[in-house]
């Protein structure tokens, strides 16, 4: 990647798959454990439909997380036309063997178990990005924001095992250097934009506009000057979210599953700061 002409003024982070361990890992683990073609669950979630898909509705805060929603989520994960499209696509790519015209029986998904596996896995800080974020916060030269597609959890809600769910971060025990850190993800940022609370989710261009306005407001309050869209560097693990961020004028870094160290190296290049322990300082 070519070094930018100037460092960003603000850095915007997705949460799941960037700052914390990716829920996509929980999805992949579920698929492999249940002989489901890898990629099917993500495909069915992304297909929506955008206006009425259960996943899209919950991330915009337009419904309540309850058994009715889990039933709708299961239906979204078992839509015959989506399965037919996915099967034909994967056979054409050569990742699955069979007749593209005749998909096998569609997998049955334990929607509640899958969901809570995703949520519980996403409580663990990423081993590379989380320490880098802490260093950026201590440095103080950047406005730090979060832009996350989220779920609003009703108080006292229990997971599929009947355990009351907590979305607090899970840090290693002492003497680990992060052991005493706050368990509230929002404490890492100057501003935190949650899709379920603002009614907009990525990749809607309006949510990027909102994020830039919030980062600009914080920058001016902190005496750091103005922040415009070209001053914002956005990290996410989903391609379509990055695509629309770029169309909105933001700079971007892709955080691939299992390759957050590589993304931190790119972040070093963008900021000119050493963010990985034990490795050479980034060049300004």
TrEMBL record:
One of its GO terms (molecular function) is hydrolase activity. Keywords: Hydrolase. This is Epoxide hydrolase-like protein. It comes from Amniculicola lignicola CBS 123094. The lineage of its organism: Eukaryota, Fungi, Dikarya, Ascomycota, Pezizomycotina.
């Amino acid at each position: 990647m070519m070094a930018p002409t100037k460092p960003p003024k603000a850095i915007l982070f997705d949460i799941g798959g960037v700052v914390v361990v990716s829920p996509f890992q929980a999805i992949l683990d579920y698929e492999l454990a249940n002989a489901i073609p890898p990629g099917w669950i993500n495909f069915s979630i992304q297909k929506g439909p955008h206006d009425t898909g259960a996943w899209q509705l919950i991330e915009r805060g337009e419904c309540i997380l309850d058994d009715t929603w889990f039933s709708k989520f299961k239906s979204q994960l078992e839509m015959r036309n989506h399965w037919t499209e996915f099967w034909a696509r994967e056979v054409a790519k050569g990742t699955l063997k069979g007749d593209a015209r005749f998909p096998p029986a569609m997998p049955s998904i334990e929607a509640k178990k899958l969901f809570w596996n995703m949520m519980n896995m996403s409580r663990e800080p990423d081993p590379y990005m989380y320490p880098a974020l802490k260093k950026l916060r201590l440095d103080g030269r950047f406005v730090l924001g979060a832009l996350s597609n989220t779920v609003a959890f009703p108080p006292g809600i229990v997971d599929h095992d009947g355990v009351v769910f907590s979305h607090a971060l899970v840090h290693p025990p002492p003497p680990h250097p992060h052991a005493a850190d706050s368990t509230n993800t929002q404490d890492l940022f100057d501003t935190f934009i949650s899709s379920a609370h603002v009614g907009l989710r990525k990749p809607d261009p309006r949510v990027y506009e909102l994020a830039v306005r919030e980062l600009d407001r914080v920058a001016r309050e902190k005496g750091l000057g103005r922040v415009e869209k070209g001053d914002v560097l956005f990290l996410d693990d989903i391609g379509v979210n990055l695509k629309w961020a770029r169309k909105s004028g933001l700079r971007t870094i892709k955080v691939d599953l299992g390759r957050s160290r590589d993304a931190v190296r790119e972040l070093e290049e963008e900021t000119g700061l050493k963010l990985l322990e034990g490795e050479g300082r980034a060049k300004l």
